[in-house]
Design brief:
By secondary structure, the chain is of the alpha+beta class. It contains 32 helices and 30 strands. It is 42% helix and 21% strand. The strands form seven sheets. The chain has an eight-stranded mixed β-sheet with strand order 5-4-8-2-1-11-14-13, with no helix packed on it. Helix 20 runs antiparallel to helix 21 and helix 24 (787-799) runs antiparallel to helix 25. It is globular. The structure holds zinc ion. Residues 1-2, 342, 375, 379, 398, 401 line the site of zinc ion.
């Protein structure tokens, strides 16, 4: 699965900078200092592998000895038992028959025949079923058939079938009838619509297959499924497998039978029913690839087909293993909670993440589509073919698929510079992981809600950063060889993390586990202080690590800790020599709290402590080092400049540096040409404006805004609004990044005026504007817009020709400032104008709109009951995450008490994190105000002149 997009700091990417990137040597293992880490391998590993292999991997968590648990640092399972099924009854072959017609009504019914293997004699069988009526239980064994009595356990989301006499061990078939209603919350088997057409789709991860049919809904309980569906003749029916047979039934009805699937976890099953059209197929070897969509969108499928073919080919090569399913359908779903879902052989997407018009799409939107398609296709092997045994190891799926998508798309389109995008994502993960209420990548999961909570930045982006760190440490070849072994060894089965470490250790001859486990099982990440001293013609680098904390108070107490947190850091740094301007790459595995590295050779001019931003830590440089770096920004790569800005900003927020020093550094980027580096300035500058300058009064806020315009306005003016002939993507994106700085944050008067004119023209003709400017122009239009413009936006959203355009105008309804327009958008959020998939995103955007925030929060509280029905469990965290924009102490109290009274099961952690962010924002407001005032009134600091 991948989340619905738009990270706050989404990049709008750039052209290749191959020369700069390739100047540095690659990261082969040979370059590493071999620092042996002594650590005994876990004895429990062998046992784990066995159980995972035999398809009973779920026992791994439970059967782990307390000793091995202590060693792994994981919390012992507590309430888990209540939510897990017995391990001695396992499904093997499942026949599922369904009867539904979404155009006629919401009711559906079906029958399921579960081919089981019982390891021991028992009197009852418990399996998952939630919000379904289950009846007519019958068990067939070699000794004959038995009738069963069905007891529902709604609190466990199970039914228990009891029999009057014991069932013998061995094989048996359990037959059940069931009935339910298509849901309206985008989970399980749910109803969706597009115009007048009605559909049914599934979304089953993490634990909603039990809302679809009675089943063994745990990832390690894989079975082969044979699905058949009875419905109206006019509907298309899609599922994981190819269609085996379509039988006409008369009366306008038909039965569609699918071929049996290979062994699959229940969360990977898929069903789509309704009027759908398909593209012409494209092929990757034998595999037929199609894009499916609601009627009339066929013109938007070419890019998805090309991407799927390209990335599937590259994935087959990487894994050295053919695509494991019969065909590949990519389905654009008109109302969908996640961004996309890796159902085996039938991947479902939001329309915005699959259907694209090459003429009007922004490069950022297009890159995201490619990344998401590749992420889901990587799951076909990593997740679907080999599956984590339990949700604790969700990151095994997601971290890898995330990393793989960037790796593969970067190989396909190096000019897109995918690792710049990754840097934006990673930066958000570093932000979250510095909070007290973060969590380790490996997290104990006791309930479906806890599993759902873990689809977050830590599991995906921190996880992918750790995967990337390991790949760089072991070397690309070794890493790939290990992954190939791992996939072959565990295909169609389940795994725990140790299985991957073992495969990687085998090929690399290195102890992988001791390095990786600290990153996987420990919350947070290090702040690595790097001090440089010249001594007797040599340079000495002194390292000291401590846990990086977002809060200054926490940072102080962490620094004082007697036994500080420690990570083995595969450190790679840039070293610039004083003469000849040569830059070299230095490596060391830093496994202690304090460490040293001696650099031979000529004197050093400066160092940068996180080469390629390949490590998941923040380097802390001395002020003198930073001063030299700021003078030679061009000497480090764009991604390192992005990193430098992000780290320094976080270090200011954590109380380890002053705001004015950061602003000096930011202004040193006035001549910056890389669009992603410019985009990195957006978050700190807009935060400084809103949270620190604005509370000091209009005058201070205006002074900051004009400083920003002063610094970046000329660069924007020089580019003009329209692209010159033959202009490359990098310039287009630079223009867009500068517009965001000068228009959205600096609010330059002439720029706002032109933006308004451009917005009006764009509404008339979508080709009148360079596409990459569209987001900013629409936003700036809304900010200045009246009721007339609001109507035009609303109309444009309703009649949009592409999903991206619809989204752009719909979301911009939340950017208007006038209270009556804010009110209108809020009431629209309760209607079908805003789809169920978009409500939470729109509200979170409105909480971030200064003019609309309070009104939105009041509305959320007032209409909570109605809104909850329109915000599915994973998306509901979005508005919670946005509440810190409200800013004040009173708002914090209000948010805390509201969610205490109205707890959200999948949002408990999001609430804790939001309150923590409120506190952090309030703290820096007071602390940094004098520095900002000084910087604004006294002008550029002495240092810069
Ligand atoms: Zn995923």
């Amino acid at each position: 699965m991948i989340g619905e997009y738009t990270r706050p700091n989404a990049a709008r990417t750039a052209e290749p900078e191959a020369s700069r990137r390739r100047r540095y040597d690659s990261h082969s293992r040979a370059g590493w200092e071999r620092q042996k880490i002594v650590s005994a391998r876990r004895k429990s590993i062998t046992g784990k592998r066995k159980s995972a292999r035999s398809g009973r991997g779920r026992s791994t968590g439970r059967k782990r000895s307390s000793k091995s648990r202590r060693r792994s640092g994981a919390t012992p399972p507590r309430a888990r038992k209540a939510h897990r099924l017995a391990t001695d009854v396992l499904p093997r072959d499942v026949e599922l028959q369904l009867d539904l017609d979404p155009a006629r009504g919401k009711a559906f019914k079906g029958e399921v025949a579960l081919g089981l293997h019982l390891e021991r004699r028992r009197r009852s069988i418990e399996l998952h079923a939630a919000e379904l009526r289950v009846s007519r239980a019958r068990l067939e064994t070699r000794q004959g058939a038995l009738r069963g009595r069905v007891d529902a356990h709604p609190e466990r989301e199970t039914v228990e079938v009891r029999f009057d006499q014991p069932i013998p061990a061995g094989d048996a078939t359990l037959r059940l009838a069931f009935a339910g209603k298509l849901r309206s919350d985008l989970r399980g088997l749910y109803a969706a619509s597009s115009g007048q057409r009605s559909y049914a789709f599934t979304q089953l991860e993490a634990a909603d297959a039990r809302r679809f049919f009675p089943c063994f809904d745990e990832p390690a309980m894989k079975a082969r499924f044979q699905i058949s569906v009875t419905t109206a003749t006019g509907h298309t029916v899609l599922s994981n497998s190819a269609v085996a047979k379509i039988e006409p039934l008369g009366g306008g009805r038909k039965r569609v039978r699918f071929r049996p699937t290979p062994p699959l976890s229940t969360y990977l099953l898929a069903l789509a029913v309704g009027e759908l059209e398909a593209s012409q197929p494209t092929h990757c070897g034998e595999t037929e690839i199609r894009v499916w969509h609601v009627p009339g969108k066929g013109a938007l499928t070419a890019f998805a087909l090309e991407t799927a073919r390209e990335t599937l080919t590259r994935l087959e090569t990487y894994f050295d293993l053919a695509y494991p399913y019969q065909k590949l359908d990519l389905v654009a779903v008109p109302d969908f909670e996640a961004g996309a879902m890796e159902n085996a052989g039938a991947v479902f997407f939001r329309e915005t993440l699959l259907l694209v018009d090459p003429e009007t799409v922004t490069l950022q939107e297009k890159k995201r589509v490619a990344e998401v398609i590749c992420h889901e296709l990587a799951h076909m092997w990593y997740g679907d073919l080999v599956t984590m045994a339990w949700w604790n190891d969700l990151w095994l799926n997601e971290a890898f698929a995330t990393w793989m998508a960037f790796h593969v798309v970067d190989g396909w389109k190096p000019e897109w510079r995918m690792w710049h995008d990754f840097q934006h994502h990673r930066s958000a993960a570093l932000g979250m992981d510095a909070l007290r209420h973060s969590h380790p990548i490996y997290t104990e999961v006791r309930s479906p809600d806890e599993a759902t909570e873990n689809f977050d930045l830590i599991t995906y982006e921190k996880g992918a950063s750790v995967v990337r760190m390991i790949e760089r440490y072991l070397g690309a070849e070794n890493f790939r060889a290990g992954v190939r072994i791992y996939l072959r060894r565990h295909r169609e089965s389940n795994t725990v993390a140790a299985d991957l470490w073992r495969a990687l250790s085998e090929v690399s001859d290195q102890e992988v586990e001791p390095i990786v486990r600290a990153w996987i099982e420990q919350q947070g990440f290090p702040l690595l202080r790097i001090r440089r001293a010249e001594r007797e013609g040599r340079t000495l680098l002194r390292f000291r690590q401590e846990r990086f904390e977002a809060s200054p108070a926490a940072q102080r107490s962490s620094a004082r800790k007697e036994r500080p947190s420690r990570w083995p850091i595969p450190w790679v740094g840039r070293v610039a020599r004083a003469r000849r301007r040569r830059i070299s790459t230095e490596r060391r595995l830093i496994s202690r709290v304090r460490d040293e590295l001696v650099l031979e050779g000529e004197p050093v001019r400066f160092i940068y402590g996180n080469a390629d931003e390949g490590g998941f830590f923040r380097p802390l440089h001395d002020p003198e080092e930073l001063r030299v770096l700021a003078e030679e920004l061009e000497a480090i790569s764009a991604v390192e400049r992005m990193g430098l800005l992000g780290h320094q900003w976080a270090i200011v927020r954590a109380g380890r540096a002053k705001l004015d020093a950061f602003l000096d550094l930011a202004m040193a980027f006035g001549g910056e040409r890389d669009p992603d580096v410019l985009m990195t300035l957006r978050t700190p500058l807009s935060f400084t404006r809103r949270q620190i300058a604005a509370p000091l009064g209009d005058e201070m806020e205006a002074a900051l805004m004009s400083r920003i315009v002063e610094e970046f306005g000329d660069a924007f003016a020089a580019l003009s609004w329209d692209p010159a002939g033959g202009e490359g993507d990098e310039i287009k994106l630079r223009r867009a990044a500068l517009l965001a700085l000068v228009g959205e944050i600096g609010e330059s008067e002439p720029v706002l005026q032109t933006a308004m004119e451009r917005c009006s023209a764009y509404l008339e003709d979508r080709h009148s504007l360079e596409p990459n400017l569209a987001d900013s122009v629409v936003n700036l239009g809304a900010r200045q817009g009246d009721a007339g413009l609001f109507e035009r936006f609303l109309e444009a959203a309703k009649t949009a020709g592409t999903p991206q355009e619809r989204r752009r105008f719909l979301m911009a309804l939340g950017d208007f400032l006038a209270p009556d327009l804010v009110k209108r958008t809020l009431s629209l959020s309760l209607t079908d104008t805003v789809g169920t998939q978009d409500v939470a995103i729109l509200l979170s955007r409105m909480l971030g709109n200064r003019a609309a925030g309070e009104q939105t929060w009041e509305f959320i509280k007032r209409r909570w009951a109605a809104l909850r029905r329109r915000m599915p469990p994973m998306l509901i965290t979005r508005p919670i995450e946005a509440t810190p924009h409200l800013g004040s102490r009173a708002a914090r109290r209000d948010v805390a008490s509201f969610f205490r009274a109205n707890p959200v099961p999948t949002g408990a952690r999001a609430v804790r994190q939001a309150l923590e962010k409120f506190d952090l924002n309030l703290e820096i407001q007071t602390r940094a105000a004098p520095a900002l005032r000084r910087w604004l009134t006294e002008g550029t600091s002495e240092k810069r002149r």
